[in-house]
Amino acid sequence: MFIEIRGVGFINKGAELMLHAALQKARSVFPDARYVMAPGTDGSGAPYLQRARLGLYQKAWQWRYGVQWGDLAKVAPARLREKFGVVLDSEIDLVLDAAGFAYSDQWGAHNTQELARASRRWKRHGTKVILLPQAFGPFETEATRKAAREFVEHADLVCARDRISYENLTAVAGEQEKIRIYPDFTNLVQGVVPTGFDTRNQRFCLIPNHRMVDKTNSATATAYLPLLVAIASHLKARNAGPFLLVHGDEGDRRLAEQVSEAAGGIPIVEEPDPLAIKGILGTCRGSVSSRFHGLVSALSQGVPSLATSWSHKYEMLFADYGISEGVLEVNSDHTAVRRKLDALLDPATADGLRGQLLERSAAIKQEAEKMWQAVFAVAGSPAAGESPGAHEPTANRPPP
Fold first, then answer.
1. CATH tag for 204-359 (out of 3.40.50.1110, 3.40.50.2000, 1.50.10.10, 3.90.1010.10)
2. Which of 17, 47, 62, 295 is 20 to 30 A (C-alpha) from 273?
């Protein structure tokens, strides 16, 4: 059995965490399957060495000019492809798409159209297609609406990560039993605290995201860096042990360096292992994050957190945990932000919030487990404990 994990990579730690989460769960149910990923160059999100370390086979896959050039690998005998770990698209039995947030007008039409083209091929090959929980939409252009309608048609299960994503999908494809709402599934992954991490002096985590600059309006983009500096400076003045954690790529690193310098030398932590990043976040007293999976890793471990937002997925995540007021308005008065930080630093307030978050986390983790049961039912695993239609699409989430 060949199972492809797609839409993930190694530059963004959230995407890499989703890859680990999907592999861990799938391998627990299909231990003898061969796991496949589309290749990339060293400068891409899927370089060979990173894929090889996880034991991933290479899919012959390359779209150019609307043509799938990976089909040329068919001319190589099967035994030769096997020697080099190359798998044809037509050999894939199950596709698990864990893109996180790729199919939306915010990224243009390319990603959504690519998935629509690929889903047509998979339908012809008899490949089962499951879109794991992720944010979808908005789909307001004719190009993305048409493509979204098509990939939903050809998929076997589509998991929206929140109510707005569900509504974005059903607005173009109609309500269907196979479109469900399930939470992000990285909350089930256990983090590991790396050896040598300074838990005594690094207690409050700040995670920047350059998407707050290139995916927002000019007013928000301009106000973002001063806000981070004000937060870091206040936490430093309160002796809260602030540190900056690089959760993304070079753009995030540059922001971290700017904040550190402006705030008088806040430590910067760069950790290549996403499981270690989750472990680090679990040790923190609090966090302010602009990265979605940094927030999931913190909140799911009961760490009181604040967020900035450039997509509806942040507001929906905080609604799930019952703390909608924790999403900051970037253009707001810094005094109001400092008051929210002070609340997180107050032991009594923080302890109460931590208990609330852990209670919500337990319920959300149950929903993530139900999602995997639905996935394995669709995939044909005897380990699945329910039929694919066991949940109504709007009834399988804890209420906000």
1. 3.40.50.2000
2. 62
